Request: fold
Amino acid sequence: PLGLDELDRAVLRALANIYEGGPAGIEAIAATLGEERDTLEDVVEPYLLQIGFLRRTKRGREITRQACDHLGLRIHKKKNKKSDQPDLFEKDEQ
Reply:
């Protein structure tokens, strides 16, 4: 689809499934995929940006709704586990 190769799809899947849609740093994405940062920046990223499947922000890379729709991906939000320890700013009600 749209000339995406396996690495393109792997980057988008990682952003959707592991990084909750982003933002995620390029170093983190590279480490997750076992790829070189330069490969992602020089080979993968330009095409994904050009076709509107990836956004670069000050905080990192984000997958776009267009990419999710095209590939049938859903953003997987991790469920926050509530700690037994009270929040630092939580008021203790007695």
Summary: The chain has four helices and two strands. Helices lie at 6-17, 26-33, 37-50, 65-71.
